[in-house]
Design a protein that fits this description.
Elements (H helix, E strand, L loop, with lengths): L1 E6 L2 E4 L4 E9 L6 E7 L6 E7 L5 E3 L7 E6 L4 E6 L8 E8 L13 E2 L3 E6 L1
Parallel strand pairs: 2-11
Antiparallel strand pairs: 1-3, 3-8, 4-5, 4-9, 5-6, 7-8, 9-10, 9-11
């Protein structure tokens, strides 16, 4: 089992920045993939970005490209989401997810492990 815990959410003004963290514990993995999703009230869970855990290459959703950056620290078993130039439409609960086998997918069903989520609110 892998446990994921997000942190770093909060309230920020439009144009501001936040950094989210996702700490993995339990049966950690040296390969596989992790991803960030978000879910706004009344909307479906939306893919934000993905990272190959061992190599570190990333794929970002078009809606956040150029504003959000995913990274990871293999030693700390932690993934990050650096968000800048935030917009009110970025307001959502942000979730991290993990797949023990390396695969890419924008569907939540791709990933078997999930964190509890952290709220990000961007005021205009």
């Amino acid at each position: 089992q892998v446990q994921l815990v997000e942190s770093g959410g909060g309230l920020v003004q439009a144009g501001g920045s936040l950094r989210l963290s996702c700490a993995a514990s339990g049966r950690t993995f040296s390969s596989g993939a992790m991803a960030w999703f978000r879910q706004a009230p009344g909307k479906e869970r939306e893919f934000v970005g993905w990272i190959n855990w061992s190599v570190g290459n990333t794929i970002d959703a078009r809606s956040v490209k150029g504003r959000f950056t995913i990274s990871r620290d293999n030693v700390k078993n932690t993934m990050y989401l650096q968000m800048s130039n935030l917009k009110p439409e970025d307001t959502a609960v942000y979730y991290c997810a993990a797949a023990q086998v390396l695969r890419f997918g924008t569907s939540p069903t791709t990933y078997e492990y999930w964190g509890q989520g952290t709220q990000v609110t961007v005021s205009s």
